[in-house]
Automatic annotation (TrEMBL):
PANTHER family: FORMATE DEHYDROGENASE 1, HYDROXYPYRUVATE REDUCTASE
CDD domains: PGDH_4
Stated family: Belongs to the D-isomer specific 2-hydroxyacid dehydrogenase family.
Protein's UniProt name: Hydroxyacid dehydrogenase
Residue span, D-isomer specific 2-hydroxyacid dehydrogenase catalytic domain: 68-330
Domain D-isomer specific 2-hydroxyacid dehydrogenase NAD-binding, residue spans: 119-297
Pfam families reported in the protein's UniProt record: 2-Hacid_dh, 2-Hacid_dh_C
Sorted UniProt keywords: NAD, Oxidoreductase
GO MF term (any one): oxidoreductase activity, acting on the CH-OH group of donors, NAD or NADP as acceptor
Coiled coil regions in record: none
Length: 355
């Protein structure tokens, strides 16, 4: 039997299902890396490694384990990088593409978990549940009218990004709450947006018209800092902001200022400049009209098992079954990858491995 194909996986893994599936096939072998892995160990641990299963949460992974040009110099045999979830914030995609390394995600695997979390934040903030809870703890809940809330039903919801998660949020809010749903997504045409349950608008129209703005786009150079002072000033007075997508899309200082001025009625934030635990002294974290969570929108048993299973199956499909990855981020890397794959294994990537 030939030597197993070597993988490396970054811990923590989303769910034990990943290692269970990989370990069940003797043609694969995996080695863990993580917070305790020293920089001088990288070249040894990645020697002969063909695939890297990696997290995308920046502060959970040492910088020297991020898949970038520096890591590629120590891992010359690497052919594929697969992330734990939908994001790939730690991955230098252009560097991978230049080297003929495929980048894959598990996009859609946590869509239900994140969508439910986003809607839960909308409801809690409109109904002012966190404020009511705090008032009761502090013994000042006698005046119930001072905690007057609003209903989600019939309101206008603005979605920034209409991918797997945004589409699910649109469906929940349209079908369960009769919301008018607007979507700003420059990569989708009007017909596609309509098929996904929303009206296509540009960002400025969405901000001006929405009672609730919910962010569901990736972090890119286009979206970094997108919701800053100018965008927040364009929102309706008393609107709600929800971000269950990625850190740095909203500007923390600008959101705090908008809350303190009263322009924003509340903010549901699952994404923070420092994750998963922001500085406890962070004024935004402590604001009474902020509902905070430590990037746990997709941390459900079902979502974690799903993305772990998808991640393992996608790697097995690529290396053992001759299948093109269904969630490929950089398809333009395929020709160079195919050449390198053939050189490494003596067969094309479309050809299944011997049993």
């Amino acid at each position: 039997m030939p030597e197993p194909i070597r993988l490396v996986h970054a811990e923590p893994l989303p769910h034990p299902a990943w290692t269970e599936i990989i370990a069940a096939d003797r043609r694969l072998a995996t080695t863990p890396v993580g917070a305790a892995t020293e920089e001088h160990e990288v070249a040894r641990l990645f020697e002969g490694v063909r695939a890297y299963q990696v997290g995308s949460l920046r502060d959970e992974l040492p910088r020297h384990l991020w898949p970038d040009a520096a890591l590629l110099a120590r891992a010359p045999d690497l052919l594929a990088v697969s992330t734990h979830g939908a994001g790939y914030d730690t991955v230098d995609v252009p560097a991978m593409t230049r080297a003929g390394v495929l980048v894959m995600t598990q996009a859609g695997g946590n869509a239900e978990g994140v969508a439910e979390h986003a809607v839960a934040m909308m409801l809690a903030l409109l109904k002012r549940i966190p404020e009511a809870h705090r008032a009761m703890l502090e013994g000042r809940a006698q005046d119930r009218a001072a905690l007057m809330g609003r209903e989600l039903a019939g309101r206008t919801l603005g979605l920034i990004g209409l991918g797997n998660i945004g589409t699910r949020v649109a469906r929940i809010c349209r079908d369960a709450f009769s919301c008018r749903v607007l979507a700003a997504d420059p990569y989708l045409d009007t017909a596609t947006v309509a098929a996904r349950g929303a009206e296509k608008v540009d960002l400025s129209e969405l901000l001006a018209a929405s009672d609730v703005v919910s962010i569901h786009c990736p972090l890119t150079e286009e979206t970094r800092g997108m919701i800053g002072g100018t965008a927040l000033a364009a929102m309706r007075d008393g609107a709600i902001l929800v971000n269950t997508a990625r850190q740095f899309i909203h500007d923390e200082a600008a959101v705090l200022e908008a809350l303190e001025s009263g322009r924003l009625a509340g903010a549901g934030l699952d994404c923070w400049d420092r994750e998963p635990q922001p500085d406890p002294a962070n004024a935004l974290l402590r604001h009474p009209r902020v509902l905070a969570s430590p990037h746990t929108a997709g941390v459900t048993e079902e979502s974690r098992r799903r993305i772990a299973t998808w991640g393992a199956q996608q790697l097995i499909g690529l290396f053992l079954r001759g299948e093109r990855p269904p969630r490929l981020v950089n398809p333009e890397a395929w020709p160079r990858f195919a050449e390198r794959f053939a050189h490494a294994f003596g067969r094309s990537p479309e050809t299944p491995a011997p049993a």
